[in-house]
Amino acid sequence: MCKMDLAICILTKDEDDKLRRCLDSVKDVGAELIVIDSGQNESTKALCQELAAEYHPYDWEENFALARNFALEQTVSNNIYFLDSDEWWAKEDLGINISQLLKYFNRTDLAQARGVATIVDHQEQAGQEVLSTHLKQRAFNKSYFNYDKELRVDETLGSTLGFDSLAFDLVNVTKVHHDGRLTADDRRAKNEQRLLLALKELEAHPGEGRYLTTLADSYRAGGQEEAAKLVYNQVVSLATGRDGAELYQTVVESENQLQSSPDYHFMAGEIYGMYHEDDKALRHFQQILELQEQGLESDYVAAAHYFIGKFYESKGDFETAKKHYRLSGEYPDAIDALAAIL
């Protein structure tokens, strides 16, 4: 068994079967296994005893950040890695995940670097399993980071040393599989809970862009596209100083007339990106590259490669992301993004 100076913390509630799968998948890492049970079930306690995991009951407070910070208080190791009970490591990823964690935790800049995992979502749609990916902060040293208790929906690691402006994310630390709630009813309930928490966040921070964005994302996740669009309008208006709805409409109405304009495609890519319509944004940044191949030079080529790279990075396709970051040349953000991929 590999021995690591590491605590793997797992949040759970009424999911013993999935918790068993989760614990089984990391049992050979040789880390502390810390289980935080907001269901406070005797069966979960017994399961933890069987699998040599440390069990801690927890009174849920509708705040994931508080639950995660409670988990930090139970660990001996300062090196932390989080899983949820409906997540697991695939057997084929065990070796590379351990190697990546060792590489990450041996860095000299842990006071600034947060480790980001690729989450592979397994969802059922129309009787078929559909896979999608996204990135999430999961690895860090608790001497330098803990969870921002003001953020109830999308937990974010904040610096304990006041270095938030200098903190950066290192991606591709591990690959994690997640199946969560597969039924439509369960997904609906989860989205409703997320929306409720997002509304509470915004009530505590009225008019702030990050909380508006979370609310808009929550509406979209629940299929409420019109409500999401109205909130995104507010976010874009705050960010640009112009009317977001008018900017969006201008982008839509100008497409046919400005197909050969790199300036238009860059603006369209940025605006669609701010509305989190990533596929539309990608199409416009790719159009800038196509126009260059046709002989139409543009100052936006390097930036287009960077934004295309960010798109593929967010999907867990790091090789394609790195290709576009390299093609950005000396574009500063691309240089930083390339260095952040382990």
Q: What would you say this structure looks like, in words?
A:
This protein is of the alpha/beta class. It contains 13 helices and eleven strands. It has helices at 16-26, 42-50, 64-73, 94-105, 184-204, 209-221, 225-240, 244-254, 262-274, 278-293, 301-314, 318-327, 332-339, and strands spanning 7-12, 32-37, 54-57, 79-84, 87-88, 113-125, 128-141, 145-147, 157-159, 168-170, 175-178. The strands form two sheets. Strands 1, 2, 3, 4, 5, 6, 7, 10 and 11 form a nine-stranded mixed beta sheet that branches. Strand 1 (7-12), helix 1 (16-26) and strand 2 form a beta-alpha-beta unit. The longest helix is centred in the middle third of the chain and has 21 residues, at 184-204. The radius of gyration is 21 Å and the shape is globular. The chain starts with 6 loop residues before the first strand and ends with a helix. The model has no long low-confidence stretch (mean pLDDT 93).
Helix amount: 40-55%
| Major sheet summary line | 9 strands, mixed
Count of separate DSSP helical elements? 13
**What is the ordering of alpha helices and beta strands?**
EHEHEHEEHEEEEEEHHHHHHHHH
Distance between the termini: 24 Å
* Total beta strands: 11
Radius of gyration, whole Å = 21 Å
Shape: globular
Low-confidence stretches: none
Work out the strand percent. Answer: 15-25%
Which structural class matches the secondary elements?
alpha/beta
What is the average of the pLDDT values?
93
Key features of this structure:
nine-stranded mixed β-sheet; two-stranded antiparallel ribbon; 342 residues; alpha/beta; 11 strands
